[in-house]
Each structure stands twice: as structure tokens, then as C-alpha cells.
Amino acid sequence: MLVSGALFGFFTSCLLALIATPLARRAGVAMGWRDRPDGAHKGHLAARPYAGGLAVVTAVTISISIFYFAFSNYAPALQTLLLAIAPGALLVASVGLLDDLRGCRPIEKLAVQGVALLLFQTSAYALGIAAGLTAISTGMLVLVVVLLNAWMLGLTNSMNLIDGMDGLASGLAATSALALCALGLILTDAPIALLAAVLAGASLGFRRSNRRPARIYLGDGGSLFLGFGLAATGVAAWLHQPGLAQALALILIMWVPLVDTGTTILRRLLSGVALFQADRDHLHHRLLARGGTNRSVGRHLIGLNLLAALCGLAVHAGVNPWAMLGLTLVASAGVLRAALPLRVTFLVENRRMGRSGDDGRSGTQERAA
User: If you ran DSSP here, which 8-state letter would residue 360 be given?
Assistant: First the structure.
């Protein structure tokens, strides 16, 4: 029954997104709601409507409403989770849509996200979702709350930051949401499985129009909504069964967006660049700059995210967490190495050539070229 419910939610949301996306595109064109190339950090050549958030939010909202009445036996538990997540998710989607329309300062978006976090935390505590935290000591509870806030803010914005290439953010959101759905099924937690399935379906349905050449973009409204939804659903899953291994499992499930955000923040801090300054130096930008195509880069990053998500599910099932983390790091090494700046790759290869003599010369010359 639970599996059939998740499948129903997934396919309903996917179908609704397939229907809503062209309508949102037409609305965006009619309103002049377009993302225009600027010759700087925006790589597309023609203006595209970025009303994708309308399509995704509509698909998720309607499909959950249909499920609520079609599977009434899950309604009470689903209502509890929705009351905790929906206000914050709709709030960040609203500020994202407003930013798409007229532009908002980063501090304004962060302030709204802070309010959304407060709404989620207050609701989760009041509705008993966070009941498991009451057994934790005060000092440890403060640390847990700080880390959960960092997780929520980080993942919410990571989906926005990585939304710089056709089909990438929607593909990553779909793989992570499918893994969260599987996690909900493992935990036999119907609301988590359903909500994740609906997010996955909406992401995949939207992606059909978002693949290269994209006809519509997610915009901040869509990316922030998906990021917050995934982050909050992940927190709810962790609260169902808290622990360090379970936390690592969630990190692996959201691997590529989190790695991209982490490396972006580190790079900007080290280079003295403002944290909120847009650039073309994300993982996908670097891979494209090194000769990758949109299709190959997308496949590699989405494939890596899927592999990491499977490792996360394995950790949650009891497989050695260090082994799964190691496997993910090894799988990531090739992608990350290819994303290194050319000068860094050249220096690394040059040092290897110095140690190994003439044996590595031709390889070094090929890579440096």
C-alpha cells in the first residue's frame, strides 16, 4: 500500500508538471518574465522565461491534495508533516519568485529563509516531529539545532547555486528526492516517502522542458522551493531515526549540490570574493570550460549524485559508513579533478613528472594543452 501510494504521488506529480510547465512558460513569455543573457556569469545566448517555479509548486501542491483524498488513511500523518514544511517552503518560493520578477538583495532572501526555518522548527516541535530531541542534553541540543539550521540553509541555497546549466538542478533534485523516497519506504514513514516522491515527480516532469536546449528555467522560485523541500524532508527523516550514520546518509543523498556549495564558499573565502557574488566558477562551469558538453557534464554530475545517494541508502541500511564515504570520494575524484583550474592540474602533473622522469611527460603535455 505504501509503495503504491508513493508511485501514485510520483506519477501524478510528474504528469501535472508536464502539463503545468508549458503553461508557465507561456505565462512567463507573456509577462516578460525572462532571464536575459548578460555576457558575464549567464552562459545562455537567448532570453528564456524563468517561471519554472510556478510549474513545480503547482504540480507539488495539486498532487499532494489529490493524494490526501485518494489515500485518506495516510491523511493525518501527512497533514502533520505538511503543516511543518509547507509554510516555510511556500515562503521561500514566494521570495524566490519575487526575486525572479524584480530582484531581491541576498540579505533579504536570507532573512526570509531565516523566518522559514523558524516556522519549520516551531511547527516540528509543536507537532511532535522533533520529539526525539527532547532526550538530548541541553549542550548537545544546541549543537544539533545549529547543525540542522546549517543543513537547511545550505541545501536550500545549494539547489539555487547549482542551477546554472540546462537540466542540472532539476536532475539532481530528482535523484536526491527518489533516494529520500526510498529512505521513507525503508523507515515505513508514509509522509516522507510521499512528499519525496512528489518532489521527484515534479522535478522530472519539469526537466523535460529544462533539458538542453532549455525552454524554461527553474528560477529562484523553483530552485529554492525544491532545496527547502528536500532539506526539510531530510530533517524529518533524520528525526525519525537520529544518529551520526543517518546524518552521513543524508549528506551522501544530497552529495553533488552540497559539494558544489562547499567548494564555492571555500573558494570565495580564500580569494576574498563576496559570498553572494554570482560567477561562472561552479563545478559544472569548470567542467564545461575543460571541454565537456552540456550533456556529458550533466550526465556525470547527476550520475555521481545517484551513486552517492545509493551509498547513503546503504549506510542507512547498516553498511560500513566509512566504506561508502570512501567509495563516494573515489567516484568524485575524477569529476573534481577534471573541474580543477588548469593551472592547478598543470602544477600537480608537473610535480609528478619531476618525480617519475620522462615517463609522465606526454601525459602532462596532453593535459596542459
Answer: G
H or E element that contains 48: strand 48-49
Q: What is the pLDDT of residues 211-255, one digit of tens each?
A: 878 889 998 999 999 999 999 999 999 988 888 999 999 999 999
Quote the CA–CA distance of 137 and 135 in Å, as a whole number.
Answer: 7
CA 130 → CA 127, 135, 155, distances in Å? 8, 10, 20
Amino acid at 36: R
Cα within 13 Å of Cα(108), Cβ side? 9
Distance CA 242, CA 253 (A): 16
To 5 degrees, how large is the angle CA 241–CA 63–CA 179?
Answer: 35
The answer on pLDDT for 279 being more than 70 is no
Tally DSSP H helices, then E strands, for the chain: 15, 2
Whole-model pTM? 0.86
Domain residue limits, the chain:
2-242, 339-369
Higher-pLDDT residue of 356 and 253 is 253
Task: Please list the residues that pair with 48 across neighbouring strands.
Answer: 35
One-letter identity of residue 78: L
* pLDDT reported for residue 364: 28
Buried b (16+ CB within 10 A) or exposed e, 282-300: bbbbbbbeeebebeebbeb
Mean pLDDT calculated for residue range 251-268? 89
Q: What is the pLDDT of residues 64-76, one digit of tens each?
A: 999 888 887 887 8
First vs last Cα of the chain: how many Å apart?
57
**Averaged pLDDT of the chain:** 83
CA dihedral 205, 158, 64, 96 (to 10 degrees): -90
- Rounded Cα distance between 328 and 37, Å, is 35
d(CA 124, CA 142): 16
C-alpha cell at 235: 530533517
Is the Cβ–Cβ distance between 321 and 245 less than 8 Å? yes
